[in-house]
């Protein structure tokens, strides 16, 4: 399997001695281990297939792709094999762990600019390679930027996570959709026209902010709110006042990546020529600056895990939802599972009366109107409650230039909502009572690129999105992976359907109405 060095890594678990745990993801646990016959330290990512209920062949294909990758800035699998109910992926051990771990341990406020420039340049080299070979990484974030003891940087998690998120039965079995909302490009959330390698450029821009601040923008918010904010607000960026310590060229780089229209984002190749990278130094510089004095990875991992478990418990006891959400982020969990309870909780939290004060989210106050005000269809809201929904209003103009589609519509992939045929600005308050259930069916069958299966048993309506993934091995003509990263599975309880029907309006139901209806349930 190891083609570069000619080493053949064994595919029998008995040939590996597992040491301590060094990482934990949504679907996997990562261990430091010894490959006994080769006397080499490796990392083994163990995916619990039973828990994931995943498509083994799909994962195998992805891991195979991972083993074909050949670039110094990409983690390449030595080999992979199934053992009991698990899939083992054996890879090089990156002794200092991820940038996220390093930040959490020693740089909670983020890194200095030369460090960021060095890290990002290495990541970008990996992206140039991937994009040139027709691949989209789809999970660029600090948690996937691994650092070795000598300051070498490698981008990890190519393939497996993408595969799991896209084709896994896990979502089906859990009735959830999964993604990485903080880093996810708006067009990926939309699921309207598909996406391409420019989605990685958006995630790259978010990662730049993450490395600069120690956390990704919107990371303190629940996933549904992250989706809304990403779609509705102006893109996040480096702030003139707050981020004085950073150069103009860094601000420009972030601005270039975080443009909502993917066509306006530069390619990875072009980005690599950006003047910002003149600030980049050597790997050795990284080793001397950020790695100096760090305790061994396993030890750091244990300390962080214990600390975060304690905080999680504390917040659970206190019922602090926002803190809980933040903790999920701190734990490095980047995929989010949505179910009805989550949605209720999230709907309940979309109610910041004075806007959002997080400096990251300074643009949140730029609210917009899409002409269909909450009060048009929720006349029973008290005035204070109306204010709480100002967050959900969208200014058409401010988005139109950067984001070509109706932004709330964009969220329709997350819900079973009907696309508004008429102008969104016409609230249509005087129309007939709708047949909501058939409306939902109509909408489902009209989705482009979506294989529909509507199970309307009175309790749920569900929509399945088809997977569309193309992978090409190096040497083959590049074909881009495409298809939604997030699966859409939304459950509308009978009660919600009832409330929706109660709305005295014949136009098709919009997402905003669903959220308001949800609000009534939650309340
Ligand atoms: N080769 C490696 N060497 C050292 N540490 C690693 C290695 N691979 C992963 N890790 C550590 O394990 C953590 C979790 O691994 P990984 O991200 O691959 O799991 P995951 O289930 O795909 O998680 P996620 O979905 O959140 O990305 C990483 O953030 C990193 O800290």
UniProtKB/TrEMBL annotation:
Bias-annotated ranges (Polar residues): 438-452
Pfam families found in the cross-reference section: Pkinase (PF00069)
GO MF terms held by the record: ATP binding; protein kinase activity; protein serine/threonine kinase activator activity
The organism's place on the tree of life at top rank: Eukaryota
PROSITE patterns hit by this protein: PROTEIN_KINASE_ATP, PROTEIN_KINASE_DOM
Protein kinase domain location: 16-277
Keyword entries, A-Z: ATP-binding, Kinase, Nucleotide-binding, Transferase
Signal peptide range in chain numbering: none
Region annotation (Disordered) ranges: 421-452
Positions annotated to bind ATP: 45
Protein family membership: Belongs to the protein kinase superfamily. STE Ser/Thr protein kinase family. STE20 subfamily.
Official protein name in the record: Mitogen-activated protein kinase kinase kinase 1
């Amino acid at each position: 399997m190891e083609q570069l060095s000619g080493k053949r890594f064994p595919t029998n678990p008995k040939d590996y001695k597992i040491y301590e745990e060094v990482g934990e993801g949504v679907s996997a646990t990562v261990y430091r281990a010894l490959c006994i016959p080769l006397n080499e330290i490796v990392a083994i990512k163990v995916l619990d297939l039973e828990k994931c209920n995943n498509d083994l062949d799909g994962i195998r294909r992805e891991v195979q792709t991972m083993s074909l990758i050949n670039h110094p800035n990409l983690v390449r699998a030595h080999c992979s094999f199934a053992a009991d109910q698990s899939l083992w992926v054996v890879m090089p051990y990156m002794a200092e762990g991820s940038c996220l771990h390093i930040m959490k341990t020693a740089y909670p406020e983020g890194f200095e600019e030369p460090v960021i420039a060095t890290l990002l340049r290495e990541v970008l080299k990996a992206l140039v390679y991937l994009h040139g070979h027709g691949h989209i990484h789809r999970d660029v974030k600090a948690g996937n930027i691994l650092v070795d003891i000598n300051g070498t940087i490698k981008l990890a998690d190519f393939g497996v996570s993408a595969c799991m998120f896209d084709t896994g039965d896990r979502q089906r079995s859990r009735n959830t959709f999964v993604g990485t909302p903080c880093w996810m490009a708006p067009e990926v959330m939309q699921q309207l026209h598909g996406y391409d390698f420019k989605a990685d450029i958006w995630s790259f821009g978010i990662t730049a902010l993450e490395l600069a601040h120690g956390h990704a923008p919107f990371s303190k918010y629940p996933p549904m709110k992250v989706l809304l904010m990403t779609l509705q607000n102006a893109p996040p960026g480096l702030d003139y006042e707050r981020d004085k310590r950073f150069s103009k060229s860094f601000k420009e780089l972030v601005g270039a990546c975080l443009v909502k229209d993917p066509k306006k984002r530069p390619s990875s190749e072009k980005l690599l020529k950006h003047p910002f990278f003149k600030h980049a130094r050597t790997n050795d510089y990284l080793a001397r600056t950020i790695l100096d004095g760090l305790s061994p990875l396993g030890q750091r991992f244990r300390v962080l895990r214990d600390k975060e478990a304690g905080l999680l418990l504390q917040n659970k006891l206190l019922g602090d939802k926002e803190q809980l959400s933040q903790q999920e982020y701190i734990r490095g969990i980047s995929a989010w599972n949505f179910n009805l309870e989550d949605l209720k909780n999230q709907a309940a939290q979309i109610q910041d009366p004075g806007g959002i004060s997080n400096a990251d989210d300074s643009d949140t106050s730029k609210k917009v109107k899409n002409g269909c005000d909450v009060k048009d269809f929720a006349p029973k809201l008290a005035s204070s409650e109306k204010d709480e929904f100002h967050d959900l209003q969208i200014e058409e103009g401010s988005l139109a230039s950067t984001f070509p589609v109706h932004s709330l519509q964009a969220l329709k992939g997350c819900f079973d909502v009907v696309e508004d045929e008429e102008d969104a600005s016409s609230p249509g308050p005087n129309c007939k009572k709708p047949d909501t259930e058939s409306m939902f069916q109509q909408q489902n069958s009209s989705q482009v690129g979506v294989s529909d299966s509507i199970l309307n048993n009175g309790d749920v309506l569900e929509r399945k999105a088809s997977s569309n993934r193309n992978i090409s091995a190096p040497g083959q003509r590049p074909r881009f992976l495409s298809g939604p990263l997030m699966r859409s599975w939304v459950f509308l309880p009978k009660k919600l359907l009832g409330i929706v029907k109660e709305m005295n309006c014949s136009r098709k139901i919009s997402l905003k109405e669903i959220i308001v209806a949800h609000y009534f349930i939650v309340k």
